[in-house]
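for the record, two folds in this file. i put them one after another cuz i was lazy. first one right below, seq on top, structure tokens after. the second one comes after a little note so u can tell where it starts
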Amino acid sequence: MATLGVLLVEYEEMPLQPEPGVSYRGDEFAKFPSLIPNTKWVQQPGHCLVAGQRVFIWCGKESVKISVSDEYWVSEENVASAEAVERALEASNLERVDPPANTRHYICPQFYPEYFG
């Protein structure tokens, strides 16, 4: 994440987490930090900037997903943002999975052939 310019929040002790089975109002639930699985209290990056582009990063046990859009369609701006982020990723040691999945939610050849040669 440091290679991408993303600063991670690391807690010295386990932060308060929601209790299973307990209902919380949205504003109360938002106070609990989401933690990266299998870490000792590292907060999910969430919304941040990579290569000057607004992205959403979510770390799983075995993968890191970076989304460049929260829209429900693919625009030229989304493609330009993705290209800028991909250039930044070239310097990281993250393995690239392209396309991440064949779904309308990702820019992939199956659903967006106009972006692929």
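(here's the note) second protein begins now
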Amino acid sequence: MVIERTLFNTILIHVARTWERIRVTRPNQEMPLDNIASTEVIEEIAFTIYSNDVVQRFLDSNDWDYWMTTTNMMSDEYIEEVAFGIISKNFI
């Protein structure tokens, strides 16, 4: 898979923001992984989101109208909602 870096980087940033928002609400503001270990996990989560059917369909078609028909119109909210789900399921 060839990664479109701009979109991947956008997803990566939103995953990191979501991770941090969750971290500051946790007891002692801690996650199960330290800051160094969390970078690899954050990147893996971003790749999972980047690889999902919704994002891949957009990349294949490059159709902005498609983005507008998906949950939350493929905005930052969509990325952060998916990231929140993954983080909550696997790390909280």
